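Students often ask why inverse folding is considered easier than folding. One informal answer: many sequences map to the same fold, so there is more than one right answer. In these notes we will look at a single instance of the problem. The structure comes first.
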């Protein structure tokens, strides 16, 4: 039964992602905002809600390992699976935005702060506030940048825009994404538990995969429609939101304990994946070769995880 629920939830997730892409583009055009900013804010925050819900719920239940591993796993998968998939599926990748100069380093900053925070084995409420402030700073940066670089006149066709139609469809798409992700997580967790897998492994693989499904579905849909800026913006914004907002909110609810020795490989993989994101954007390696390289990192990560099950 859990397998059937998982398949149905995936279908709902993909449907919702398609609605999100279409309606978010209309909002971007209506307010003369670039597709990247919409992807890095509205869509990224929306698709990070499953991670937020899962990590806060885990924190409330005193399951620090699940809350933290969910964020770490999601960040790894967003880069090594979602970004790799975008590179492999997109027909042409020629983004208008300089992701290195403006965005990828933002995704690296909270990761570096996270490394410093876990040296004492706990992410405190003070640490949580610092992470949340970091997310606020990024959002302010994006909003200011969107004002400084508006869309060209010929790009801004809003003749068919209607708030009465767009807002309900946008919320419907977001709801479908969240509901689909929720049941994907629940069914995947049930399947994992039936095999006697540990809490950390459930979080780092099963739950993080389930909560990364919105990013995967949205980014694939955007890539197939040629909206690469929106797809990459969703990934960078989601990782920024995961490490700062999701982890910060979970730690604010209840301080999170972490076994730095046991989690060393996974934390290191997250750092390496984030550095690869910066390297790819710095050298504009938006091609299938980069996608394959990222999948190799994913393979190494999954191989080590499966060996420790």
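Output (designed amino acids):
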């Amino acid at each position: 039964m859990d397998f059937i629920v998982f398949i149905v939830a995936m279908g709902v997730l993909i449907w919702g992602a398609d609605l999100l892409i279409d309606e978010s583009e209309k909002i971007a055009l209506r307010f003369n905002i670039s597709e990247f900013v919409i992807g890095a804010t509205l869509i990224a925050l929306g698709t990070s809600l499953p991670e937020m819900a899962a990590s806060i719920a885990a924190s409330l239940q005193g399951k620090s390992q699940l809350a933290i591993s969910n964020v770490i796993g999601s960040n790894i998968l967003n880069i090594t699976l979602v970004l790799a998939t975008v590179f492999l599926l997109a027909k042409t990748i020629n983004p208008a935005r300089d992701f290195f100069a403006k965005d990828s380093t933002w995704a690296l900053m909270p990761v570096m702060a996270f490394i410093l925070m876990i040296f004492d084995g706990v992410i405190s409420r003070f640490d949580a506030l610092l992470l949340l402030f970091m997310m606020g700073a990024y959002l302010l940066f994006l909003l200011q940048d969107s004002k400084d670089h508006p869309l060209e006149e010929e790009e801004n066709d809003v003749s068919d825009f209607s708030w009465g139609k767009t807002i309900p469809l946008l919320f419907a798409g977001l709801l479908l994404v969240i509901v689909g992700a929720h049941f994907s997580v629940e069914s995947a967790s049930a399947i994992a538990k039936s095999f006697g897998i540990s809490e950390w492994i459930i979080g780092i693989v099963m739950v993080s995969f389930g909560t990364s499904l919105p990013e995967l579905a949205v980014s694939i849909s955007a890539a197939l429609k040629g909206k690469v800026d929106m797809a990459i913006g969703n990934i960078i914004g989601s990782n920024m939101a995961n490490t700062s907002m999701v982890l910060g909110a979970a730690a604010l609810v209840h301080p999170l304990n972490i076994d730095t020795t046991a989690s060393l490989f996974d934390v290191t993989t997250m750092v390496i994946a984030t550095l690869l994101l910066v390297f790819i954007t710095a050298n504009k390696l938006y091609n299938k070769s980069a996608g394959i390289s990222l999948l190799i990192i994913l393979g190494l990560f999954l191989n080590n995880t499966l060996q420790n099950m």
